[in-house]
Amino acid sequence: MEKKIQNDIKEAMKAKDKVALAALRAVKSEILLAKTAEGKTGEITDAEILKIIQKLVKQRNESAALYSEQKRQDLADDELAEAAVLKKYLPEPMSDEELSKNVQEIINQVGAKSMADMGKVMGIASKKLAGKADGRAIATKVKQLLG
User: Fold this and answer.
1) d(CA 4, CA 10)
2) 81 and 100 housed in the same domain
3) DSSP 8-state symbol, 116
4) For residue 112, what is the domain's CATH number?
5) Coil, helix or strand for 37?
6) Tens digit of each residue's pLDDT (9 = 90 or more) over 79-119
7) How many structural domains is the chain composed of?
């Protein structure tokens, strides 16, 4: 996945696509930071890259919301355009039904009975559903099914 991003940076440069270039350079920067973080071996998995991209998309969306509140639609549009470029690298998000089914399977697997077991369920669900569903959506679904 890292090589694909690197190649897409080159393509964005050739196409003079400033939005894609900015978004992809942000991903590359975060990947380099993750590789050189303390305790890292210098290698990074595709799953870790997906988490980085999800984090960047979330940041872009939050920034766009703030800019919109402050009546700076030009900046909000820039953030949303970068988020759209980054979303192309993420897998298709799960539907609500798929999320319910997966969370229910995890609840059954763990043997969770009440909200006291939410931590156990969230630990497994966060790992299993990484990249396929937003953490907040997972937490909401776990609360709904346990509550």
Assistant:
1) 10
2) no
3) G
4) 1.10.10.410
5) coil
6) 999 999 999 998 888 888 999 999 999 999 988 888 888 99
7) 2
